[in-house]
Amino acid sequence: MGFAVARRFKAGPKVEIAFMDDGGGHQLELATGTGRKIRGEGFSVGFDVEDMDATLAHLKKHDVAIVYGPQTMSSGVTLLQAKDLNGLSLTFVQNPR
Which of 96, 4, 93, 97 is nearest to 48 (CA)? Predict the structure, then answer.
């Protein structure tokens, strides 16, 4: 996906926060160790991608479970949904060029 760790730090005795940078001015914040169990039910993270074929190849290479897709809608938008190791729903969207 091209993300690199921009910064990572302890935010308390059991909490760690990391900011991932895409190199294009966008960052994703990840936090762990809040003392709560992580469940991916009812929650999704979406990503806008330039190349769905490359995204699919990357996900497969890293054994990410593909739920459906890629599927191109009548609008020209291509969707792919996957699940991470915690069951979190990941949606990848490629807009028409």
Answer: 93
- C-beta of residue 94 within 8 angstroms of C-beta of residue 50: yes
pLDDT band at 80 (very low <50, low <70, confident <90, very high): very high
Count of the separate structural domains present in the chain: 2
Same domain, 9 and 23: yes
| Structural domain of 76 | 37-97
Q: What CATH number is attached to the domain comprising 66?
A: 3.10.180.10
89 and 54 together in one domain = yes
Q: What is the pLDDT of residues 14-35, one digit of tens each?
A: 778 788 888 887 778 777 766 6
In the structure, what pLDDT confidence band is assigned to residue 39 with cuts at 50, 70 and 90? Answer: low
